[in-house]
Specification:
8 helices; elongated; four-stranded mixed β-sheet; 52% helix; 208 residues; 6 strands; alpha+beta; two-stranded antiparallel sheet
Length: 208
Amino acid sequence: MMNSTILRAASLALMQLFSTLIATQAFSPFPPPTIRISRTLPNKLAPTTRLASTSQDEASFLDTLTQGYQTFQTARSQGYDFKQSVAIAIAGQYDEQAVQSKIQTHIDSAPCVLFTWEASPACKKAIRYLDVAGAKYKVVRLDDPWSEGNPMRAELGKRVGRSSVPCIFIGGEYVGGFDGGVGEKSPGILEMAFKGTLRERLAEVGAL
Protein backbone atom coordinates (compact mmCIF):
# COMPACT_ATOMS: atom_id res chain seq x y z
CA MET A 1 0.00 0.00 0.00
CA MET A 2 1.28 3.44 -0.89
CA ASN A 3 1.63 5.98 1.87
CA SER A 4 -1.36 8.36 1.80
CA THR A 5 0.84 11.43 2.32
CA ILE A 6 2.94 10.55 -0.73
CA LEU A 7 -0.21 9.94 -2.74
CA ARG A 8 -1.57 13.36 -1.84
CA ALA A 9 1.73 15.00 -2.77
CA ALA A 10 1.82 13.09 -6.04
CA SER A 11 -1.73 14.07 -6.90
CA LEU A 12 -1.03 17.73 -6.21
CA ALA A 13 2.15 17.55 -8.26
CA LEU A 14 0.25 16.04 -11.17
CA MET A 15 -2.38 18.76 -11.11
CA GLN A 16 0.16 21.55 -10.88
CA LEU A 17 2.67 20.24 -13.38
CA PHE A 18 0.44 18.84 -16.08
CA SER A 19 -1.95 21.81 -16.14
CA THR A 20 1.00 24.06 -16.83
CA LEU A 21 2.55 21.67 -19.34
CA ILE A 22 -0.64 21.70 -21.37
CA ALA A 23 -0.79 25.49 -21.27
CA THR A 24 2.87 25.89 -22.26
CA GLN A 25 2.96 23.03 -24.81
CA ALA A 26 5.71 21.27 -22.91
CA PHE A 27 6.01 17.55 -22.47
CA SER A 28 6.61 15.91 -19.12
CA PRO A 29 9.79 13.90 -18.63
CA PHE A 30 7.98 11.70 -16.15
CA PRO A 31 7.31 8.42 -17.96
CA PRO A 32 4.21 6.42 -17.10
CA PRO A 33 4.64 3.03 -15.48
CA THR A 34 5.93 0.43 -17.90
CA ILE A 35 3.08 -1.56 -19.41
CA ARG A 36 3.73 -5.21 -20.01
CA ILE A 37 1.76 -6.90 -22.77
CA SER A 38 1.31 -10.65 -22.87
CA ARG A 39 -0.56 -12.58 -25.53
CA THR A 40 -2.08 -16.01 -25.13
CA LEU A 41 -3.71 -18.30 -27.66
CA PRO A 42 -6.04 -20.57 -25.71
CA ASN A 43 -7.19 -23.36 -28.03
CA LYS A 44 -8.58 -21.75 -31.21
CA LEU A 45 -9.72 -18.48 -29.69
CA ALA A 46 -8.53 -15.15 -31.05
CA PRO A 47 -5.48 -13.57 -29.36
CA THR A 48 -6.21 -11.77 -26.11
CA THR A 49 -4.23 -8.93 -24.62
CA ARG A 50 -3.59 -8.47 -20.94
CA LEU A 51 -2.19 -5.23 -19.53
CA ALA A 52 -0.38 -5.21 -16.23
CA SER A 53 2.01 -2.91 -14.43
CA THR A 54 4.27 -4.20 -11.72
CA SER A 55 4.58 -2.70 -8.25
CA GLN A 56 8.20 -1.93 -9.11
CA ASP A 57 7.05 0.13 -12.13
CA GLU A 58 4.58 2.01 -9.94
CA ALA A 59 7.21 2.69 -7.30
CA SER A 60 9.67 3.98 -9.91
CA PHE A 61 7.05 6.28 -11.41
CA LEU A 62 6.03 7.57 -7.99
CA ASP A 63 9.66 8.16 -7.00
CA THR A 64 10.26 10.19 -10.17
CA LEU A 65 7.07 12.16 -9.65
CA THR A 66 7.86 12.83 -6.00
CA GLN A 67 11.38 14.02 -6.88
CA GLY A 68 9.91 16.35 -9.49
CA TYR A 69 7.46 17.76 -6.97
CA GLN A 70 10.22 18.31 -4.43
CA THR A 71 12.33 20.06 -7.06
CA PHE A 72 9.34 22.25 -7.92
CA GLN A 73 8.80 23.17 -4.27
CA THR A 74 12.50 23.96 -3.82
CA ALA A 75 12.47 26.25 -6.86
CA ARG A 76 9.40 28.05 -5.54
CA SER A 77 11.10 28.55 -2.16
CA GLN A 78 14.08 30.08 -3.99
CA GLY A 79 11.83 32.75 -5.45
CA TYR A 80 11.23 31.44 -8.96
CA ASP A 81 7.75 31.99 -10.35
CA PHE A 82 5.36 29.14 -11.05
CA LYS A 83 6.24 28.67 -14.71
CA GLN A 84 10.00 28.76 -14.13
CA SER A 85 9.64 26.34 -11.23
CA VAL A 86 7.79 23.93 -13.50
CA ALA A 87 10.59 24.25 -16.10
CA ILE A 88 13.15 23.42 -13.41
CA ALA A 89 11.10 20.43 -12.22
CA ILE A 90 10.71 19.13 -15.76
CA ALA A 91 14.44 19.38 -16.36
CA GLY A 92 15.23 17.03 -13.51
CA GLN A 93 18.81 16.54 -12.40
CA TYR A 94 21.57 17.92 -14.62
CA ASP A 95 24.99 19.58 -14.54
CA GLU A 96 24.14 23.28 -14.37
CA GLN A 97 27.59 24.53 -15.38
CA ALA A 98 27.75 22.16 -18.35
CA VAL A 99 24.31 23.28 -19.55
CA GLN A 100 25.15 26.95 -19.09
CA SER A 101 28.35 26.44 -21.09
CA LYS A 102 26.41 24.69 -23.84
CA ILE A 103 23.92 27.56 -24.01
CA GLN A 104 26.72 30.13 -24.24
CA THR A 105 28.38 28.15 -27.02
CA HIS A 106 25.15 28.26 -29.01
CA ILE A 107 24.70 31.99 -28.37
CA ASP A 108 28.27 32.71 -29.51
CA SER A 109 27.96 30.55 -32.62
CA ALA A 110 25.81 32.96 -34.68
CA PRO A 111 24.83 36.65 -34.68
CA CYS A 112 21.17 35.72 -34.19
CA VAL A 113 20.15 32.61 -32.24
CA LEU A 114 16.67 31.31 -31.45
CA PHE A 115 15.94 28.63 -28.86
CA THR A 116 12.67 27.07 -29.97
CA TRP A 117 10.08 24.31 -29.93
CA GLU A 118 9.15 23.17 -33.43
CA ALA A 119 5.39 23.02 -32.71
CA SER A 120 5.21 26.39 -30.92
CA PRO A 121 3.08 28.97 -32.80
CA ALA A 122 5.14 31.81 -31.34
CA CYS A 123 8.36 30.18 -32.55
CA LYS A 124 6.93 29.73 -36.03
CA LYS A 125 5.90 33.40 -36.13
CA ALA A 126 9.34 34.54 -34.97
CA ILE A 127 11.05 32.53 -37.69
CA ARG A 128 8.62 33.89 -40.28
CA TYR A 129 9.29 37.49 -39.21
CA LEU A 130 13.05 36.97 -39.37
CA ASP A 131 12.70 35.41 -42.81
CA VAL A 132 10.72 38.43 -44.00
CA ALA A 133 13.45 40.68 -42.57
CA GLY A 134 16.03 38.71 -44.53
CA ALA A 135 17.88 37.74 -41.36
CA LYS A 136 20.50 35.05 -41.02
CA TYR A 137 19.88 33.07 -37.86
CA LYS A 138 20.52 29.80 -36.08
CA VAL A 139 17.74 27.70 -34.57
CA VAL A 140 18.45 25.59 -31.49
CA ARG A 141 15.56 23.23 -30.86
CA LEU A 142 14.77 22.51 -27.23
CA ASP A 143 12.52 19.61 -28.21
CA ASP A 144 15.08 17.54 -30.11
CA PRO A 145 15.68 15.77 -27.84
CA TRP A 146 13.65 16.90 -24.84
CA SER A 147 16.20 15.32 -22.49
CA GLU A 148 18.76 17.92 -23.59
CA GLY A 149 16.36 20.77 -24.28
CA ASN A 150 14.54 20.77 -20.94
CA PRO A 151 17.68 21.56 -18.89
CA MET A 152 18.59 24.31 -21.38
CA ARG A 153 15.10 25.79 -21.07
CA ALA A 154 15.43 25.79 -17.27
CA GLU A 155 18.80 27.55 -17.40
CA LEU A 156 17.67 30.02 -20.05
CA GLY A 157 14.76 30.95 -17.82
CA LYS A 158 17.11 31.57 -14.91
CA ARG A 159 19.39 33.63 -17.15
CA VAL A 160 16.86 35.93 -18.78
CA GLY A 161 13.97 35.82 -16.31
CA ARG A 162 11.51 34.24 -18.74
CA SER A 163 11.04 30.55 -19.55
CA SER A 164 8.83 30.97 -22.63
CA VAL A 165 9.95 30.15 -26.14
CA PRO A 166 11.23 31.38 -28.44
CA CYS A 167 14.18 32.76 -26.52
CA ILE A 168 16.04 35.03 -28.93
CA PHE A 169 19.56 36.46 -28.80
CA ILE A 170 20.93 39.05 -31.21
CA GLY A 171 24.61 39.83 -30.99
CA GLY A 172 24.83 37.74 -27.84
CA GLU A 173 22.17 39.78 -26.06
CA TYR A 174 18.69 38.61 -25.11
CA VAL A 175 16.01 40.58 -26.96
CA GLY A 176 12.94 38.67 -25.74
CA GLY A 177 10.71 36.25 -27.55
CA PHE A 178 8.31 36.88 -30.40
CA ASP A 179 5.78 39.23 -28.80
CA GLY A 180 7.10 39.66 -25.28
CA GLY A 181 10.13 39.94 -23.09
CA VAL A 182 11.26 41.21 -19.70
CA GLY A 183 11.91 44.91 -20.21
CA GLU A 184 12.65 47.79 -22.57
CA LYS A 185 15.87 46.19 -23.81
CA SER A 186 14.20 42.86 -24.51
CA PRO A 187 10.62 43.55 -25.64
CA GLY A 188 10.48 40.81 -28.27
CA ILE A 189 11.12 41.06 -31.99
CA LEU A 190 7.51 42.01 -32.83
CA GLU A 191 7.76 45.27 -30.91
CA MET A 192 11.26 45.82 -32.28
CA ALA A 193 9.91 45.44 -35.80
CA PHE A 194 7.11 47.97 -35.15
CA LYS A 195 9.62 50.44 -33.71
CA GLY A 196 11.95 49.96 -36.67
CA THR A 197 14.82 48.69 -34.53
CA LEU A 198 14.83 45.02 -35.52
CA ARG A 199 16.58 45.33 -38.88
CA GLU A 200 18.89 47.97 -37.42
CA ARG A 201 19.94 45.62 -34.63
CA LEU A 202 20.32 42.68 -37.00
CA ALA A 203 22.48 44.76 -39.34
CA GLU A 204 24.71 45.91 -36.49
CA VAL A 205 25.70 42.34 -35.64
CA GLY A 206 26.00 41.11 -39.22
CA ALA A 207 22.79 39.09 -39.26
CA LEU A 208 21.47 40.64 -42.50
